[in-house]
């Protein structure tokens, strides 16, 4: 059984490496998915298993970022020049020239930090394994080569509907797959979008109910995305932003238009619109439901 799971992992990890298709939008930033590092030792998994989990983690992270539609993903293993440069970085030669040539604005590297596995004997004498996998993602800005974000993420059985397994290998396979959905939050945290309210669509009494914004499918907006609404104010002679409301995407209408519900600050948003103020919106990092 252990060999079967390992074979499956290797197939998934090695067989899905790819460059995700670009959607033709020159507005989206390109993020290069760099090579990931694996833990040096483990009392539970063999070196081959750890390598397979690391590759599977990278592919799930890459798939999750791609599916966000917020940025364009570039796989450094997609061709020889990118792969050679990536291997050089992993061995200590910090060069991003090839990625910069391909238009990448960021490089994302990762480290699979730790596994935990716990064995539980059930009342019917069957065995269930629970545990967690922890990994760190580092986002590097190009061409500067400076780290702009580092996030430590933990996928765990303790999470709501967290996975379990009949073997340690089955558990770890499921936990690594959870990283794909975690990228929604990662992208919302690190690749915020800014736009404006272009029209208050419906009003009830003195409250704005719905509004159109100038972000749509082209920038990866999906139903359920939240936005904070700001107006510009002068404070001590400097321009600052004041939070006045919140929106939730109701329906993506086109490449550049989305109809949103005004979920907070309905009066303030309508008042600012009537006064001709610019209503600035910024994607929020609340999980999309």
Q: What's the arrangement of strands in the largest beta sheet?
A: 6-7-10-9-8-11
| CA-based shape | globular
Integer average pLDDT = 86
Main β-sheet description: 6 strands, antiparallel, barrel
Cα-atom Rg, whole angstroms?
A: 22 Å
Q: What is the distance, rounded to the nearest whole angstrom, between the alpha carbons of the first and last residues?
A: 36 Å
Order of helices and strands: HEHEHHEEEHHEEEEEHE
Task: Name the CATH homologous superfamily of the largest domain.
Answer: ABC-type transport auxiliary lipoprotein component
Q: Would you give the CATH topology of the largest domain? A: Rossmann fold
Q: Helix fraction?
A: 25-40%
Query: What fraction of residues sit in β-strands?
Result: 35-45%
CATH class placement of the largest domain: Alpha Beta
Number of helices: 7
- Quaternary structure annotation: single chain
Number of domains: 2
Q: Specify the structural class.
A: alpha+beta
Low-confidence stretches: 1-26
CATH architecture of the largest domain: 3-Layer(aba) Sandwich
- Work out the number of β strands: 11
